[in-house]
Amino acid sequence: MRKEFIIDGRRFSTMGGFYDEVECVFTCGLHWRIGQNLNAFNDVLRGGFGQHAYGEPIHIKWLFYEKSLRDLGSENINAITEIILDTNNSGHDCTLELL
């Protein structure tokens, strides 16, 4: 069974807010902040930042996805979902459910 994480589109409306949401959802106990960029997001999905182990398969539920699409735009959303689904084989195992 995959560990489940929820990204809530009601909690952000900008890319900066998205990165804050990612940090809140996927990290725990860090004494530093994650980078506010897609490369850092990709790294966080691999694990080892407090919420899931490095390489552990996870499932992401994205609540209010349509709101996020409107707020962030299709170019950003496409880049984010490609990272989540690991279309470039960077080494993490995520599934995605859009709600």
Give a nutshell description of this structure.
This protein has 99 residues and is an alpha/beta fold. The protein has helices spanning 15-26, 38-46, 65-72, 74-84, and strands at residues 3-8, 58-63, 94-98. It is built from four helices and three strands; from the N terminus they run βααβααβ.
Q: How would you describe this protein?
A:
With 99 residues, the chain is α/β, with parallel strands linked by helices. The protein is 40% helix and 17% strand. A 3-stranded parallel β-sheet has the order 1-2-3, with helices on one face. The chain is globular. 19% of the residues are buried.
List the helices and strands and how they pair.
Blueprint: E1 3-8, H1 15-26, H2 38-46, E2 58-63, H3 65-72, H4 74-84, E3 94-98
Parallel strand pairs: 1-2, 2-3
Task: List the main descriptive attributes of the protein structure presented here.
99 residues, alpha/beta, Barnase, Chain D, three-stranded parallel β-sheet, 3 strands, 17% strand
